[in-house]
Amino acid sequence: MRVSIIGGTGYIGLVTGIGLAAKGHRVICADIDRLKIENIERGVLPICEEGLDALLQEAKRYGNISFTSSIHSAVIISDIVMIAVGTPEGINGETDMNQLLNALKSVAAAMDHHKTIVIKSTVPVGTNDMAATLIKKHLKSSSITFDMVSNPEFLREGSAVKDFMNPDRIVIGTCCNDAAQTMRELYRCFDCPVIVTEPRSSEMIKYACNSYLAARISFINEIAEICEKVDANIQSVIDGMKSDKRIGGHYLSPGPGFGGPCLHKDIRSLIHFGEQAGADVGMLKAVLERNEKQIESIVQYIGTILKSIKNKKVAVLGLSFKAGTSDTRNSPAITLIRKLVETNCKVSIYDPVICKIEEHLNSSVIMAQSIGEATVNADCIVVMTEWEEFFTMNLDVLYNGMRHAFIVDARNIISPDRALKAGFQYKGIGVQRSGAHLNGDHLMKRII
């Protein structure tokens, strides 16, 4: 089938376009960002995602994919037009629809025959109805017909290629039987359940899924805090929980809180349009409030151990909101760094795939090229991203280069016993406090 992706160089658009092309469809990815288009044509992808480059090369070998900055030409040659533009968070939690509205107007102005228009962007419930009205208003001729479809994505950064090529389910929201059949044909080569429903339920499914996942993360972080207070071990608790088939083990890893471009934004959006509809969204608000406490508790713990954060050096390991991606949007690490900088703390940073930080923080932090460089003369190490490199770092070597031997492991990837053996005081999330008998004075040592 002939498919155009509007917003085709963004995270969702690029993975979707390349994936569909690799499956045999003729795809054209359109985006107004010409620089991204030029870079992709030179083989430079704008995102870090395992397997994506190999999939792109496969699609190119088939001759099934192309890129353009002309939305008009992309729409003209396509039977299916997928819109995958960004829908960022607004000031009050509402969804910023400007990119979507502009894309819909551009698509309508380019149409000269029937199209199936698919919204993949995450949008508030009722958006498909609004989109149909807007497109009708901007068509060149009232005789041109189209069908609207809601087709939410469920891609996780870091495993987006795997998720797209092997989906758990495909959701199709439309009131038109012909459009549903068109979408079934598009996804015919995917072996998974296909859920066909009306657009409003389809739009709601994405918000419900992401809010539930966020709730699990906030829940397990709260349980982890209780574990610390009563001297229980969160990992043992999780082992006991996940053996229950009703619960399972997904999204039950305590840590610095959820981040990234989806969970926080989507739950805020759901709260916003839920309240507007008159719904009680108290539980959703509690999920966000619990999440915001995670970084505060880390900062407070560092201050307690070091007695004062001011003028101390803290080495932050990891910038991305999770391993496997270079995305720092809503990253807990960035939030932590901001709070540390506000307290006049000296911050050094190392991430294996990210070499720069937000421009306004540049003058306040040191970007290191290695773990050793980041931690030398440091008073504290904070592990914020679960990169493989951090699992195996040589604690004995790091110990000899630091002023205070203190580790805050926000991802629970370092064995407390290993840290203690190397001479460190160790603080995990919900982990029994190995080395807690050691205080800051005991850990202060002379640089050798």
What is the secondary structure topology, with strand pairs?
Elements: E1 2-6, H1 11-22, E2 26-30, H2 34-41, H3 52-62, E3 65-68, H4 71-76, E4 80-83, H5 98-110, E5 115-119, H6 127-138, E6 146-150, H7 160-165, E7 170-173, H8 177-186, E8 194-197, H9 199-230, H10 234-242, H11 263-276, H12 282-306, E9 313-317, H13 332-342, E10 346-350, E11 365-367, H14 371-375, E12 380-383, H15 388-391, H16 395-401, E13 406-409, H17 416-421, E14 425-427, H18 440-443
Parallel strand pairs: 1-2, 1-4, 2-3, 4-5, 5-6, 7-8, 9-10, 9-12, 10-11, 12-13, 13-14
Describe the protein.
The protein is of the alpha/beta class. It contains 18 helices and 14 strands. α1 links the parallel β1 (about 1-5) and β2. The longest helix has about 30 residues, at about 200-230. The relative contact order is 0.09.
Largest beta-sheet details: 6 strands, parallel
Please state the structural category. Answer: alpha/beta
User: What low-confidence regions span 5 or more consecutive residues with pLDDT below 50?
Assistant: 434-448
The third-level CATH topology of the largest domain is Rossmann fold
Radius of gyration: 24 Å
Helical content (DSSP H or I, runs of 4+): 40-55%
